[in-house]
Amino acid sequence: MCPIQPDPIQRERSARPRKTIQQVVIAAVAPEEHDDVLRIAWVRASTFGLRLVVCAVVADDGDVRSAREMIEQRVNALIPNASHLEIDVRVGDRAEQLLECARTHDTVLLVMGPASHREGVLARFFSPSLPTALLRAAEFPILVTRYSPPTGRIVAAVELGEPMKPVLRAAAEEVRRAGGKLHVIHCVAPMPAPGTMELPVLTTPSTELIDAARTELTRAVAAMGVTPAEVKVEVGAAGQTILQVARELSADLIVVGTHGRSGPARLLLGSIAEEVLRATACNVMVVRAGGDA
Q: What are the residue ranges spanned by the domains of the chain?
């Protein structure tokens, strides 16, 4: 019996080298924006040995060339060895195109500037700002940059259990990259006192509950090998408590998780990450809870 000869097309395909998708950091910029986004994205990409993709979105095909030229000038002025990065100018809706750019690559982090306006409840639901729209849809961490003097203090706001791990990983990497001290906080909401459902009276959670939460946080931080680090369990509404702690510490970065709720659930329950993002004066990194930072 004659041996079966391999299909020549299949043999050719097998002989081709497989394309490797390189992990990247994306800097979401506009030609007129401040240079902080570009600098911060470059630092993180170069520190971790990743490729930098500078992505801008314009409204019309006729704007592509001028936008690219403006970005090239900024890149050449700010970044050494700029030949190792990619400039990607797209046309269309900014949020959609930035997400599509990120999905084209193996995106580790997207760096962008803050929202340009405050959002009301209905505006956040029906027409959210760019950072809000991206953090709701993205599966990768997003760093929203604001100018704040570096203090070396990083606040990681975490839930208990598995959802805290991606947030802690991201915060730990920032400490290893830049140094400084990590402050890990978990917020416990006041609880209604028994028998006060008609006119609820809020009481402080028990000492046992707070101690158990602190013990779990301490073990999780130790497992990450991050030192020095401080662990706190705070009583109060999560968003306002995180903002207050960051102000008191003069933190230069808050790392917070999001569950990516959408639709009526987000309108009714809100989002701690979005509240922090809108109101803080420092950098914010938003990490998908349950994801891989």
A: 21-113, 153-288
Alpha carbon 279 to its chain's center: 16
Strands 86-91 and 51-58: parallel
Q: Which segments of the chain have a pLDDT < 70?
A: 1-21, 31-34, 115-128, 191-204, 260-270, 290-293
**In the block, which residue shows the tokens 């940059």?**
145
Closest CA to 262 of 75, 158, 152, 136: 136
CB count in 10 Å sphere of residue 41? 28
pTM of the model: 0.81
Fold classification of 21-113 (topology level): Rossmann fold (3.40.50)
